[in-house]
Design goal:
The protein has three helices and no strands. The protein is mostly helical. The chain starts with a helix and ends in an 8-residue tail after the last helix.
């Protein structure tokens, strides 16, 4: 999953469509794109674990974001 997130971030960072996003907005948008991908591939979680899946995706996206932006103060 982290490799998919890293590829997605590379594409989105280079895109000039969302230049004025904050770090939090960027992370949330990447999370939403990951959840959309899971939904389109018909991925499901057991009943009652949806919030846990979302939380884990947010943690992974945040971790990859920190690795990608290491040494920078913000996304710009």
């Amino acid at each position: 999953m982290k490799s998919y997130i890293a590829e997605l971030m590379d594409e989105e960072i280079l895109s000039h469509l969302h230049q004025h996003e904050t770090n939090d907005e960027f992370i949330q948008r990447i999370c939403n794109l990951c959840l959309d991908e899971i939904e389109t591939t018909k991925g499901f979680s057991p009943r009652g674990y949806g919030a846990d899946v979302i939380e884990e995706i947010e943690l992974e996206v945040t971790e990859v974001f920190r690795m990608k932006t290491y040494g920078y103060f913000n996304l710009r």
